[in-house]
């Protein structure tokens, strides 16, 4: 499904704000990028390729699953999501009030 640039960015920012990250697949035709396809963050799993050790993205939709190499994926991630993936989350990010801003769990 084709989206206008404005609608692509609206959807991408919506996913980013809602889930802390957003994904867009670079769809190619004859080796050239022709469009960006946004993916809901819940439909994407990041894995490491067993043979190459490189990051790959497992995409799930109604038609099944497929693997997309990291070279064909844009991954937007906010800082709290990046720290969560690395195993370090700040208290302020766990408590919406922010009253404990700046204190780290791993202290």
Secondary structure elements and their pairing?
Blueprint lengths: L4 H15 L1 E9 L2 E8 L4 E5 L6 E7 L2 E6 L3 E5 L1 H8 L4 H4 L13
Antiparallel strand pairs: 1-2, 1-6, 3-4, 4-5
How would you sum up this structure, described in words?
With 107 residues, this protein is of the alpha+beta class. Helix content is 25%, strand content 37%. The chain has three helices and six strands, in the order αββββββαα. The strands form two sheets. It has a three-stranded antiparallel sheet with strand order 2-1-6. A hairpin with a 6-residue loop joins strand 3 and strand 4. The chain is globular. The N and C termini lie far apart (47 Å).
Task: Write a concise keyword list for the protein shown above.
alpha+beta, disordered C terminus, 107 residues, 25% helix, three-stranded antiparallel sheet, 6 strands
Give a brief description.
With 107 residues, this protein is α+β, with helices and mostly antiparallel strands. Helices cover 25% and strands 37% of the residues.
Oligomeric status = single chain
Termini distance?
A: 47 Å
- Enumerate how many helices there are, as a single number: 3
Structural class: alpha+beta
The main sheet comes to: 3 strands, antiparallel
* Strand tally: 6
The largest beta-sheet arranges its strands as 2-1-6
Shape call:
globular
Task: Summarize the amount of helix as a percent range.
Answer: 25-40%
Rg, nearest Å: 16 Å
Low-confidence stretches: 88-107
Mean pLDDT: 79
Task: Tell me the strand percentage band.
Answer: 35-45%
Order of helices and strands: HEEEEEEHH
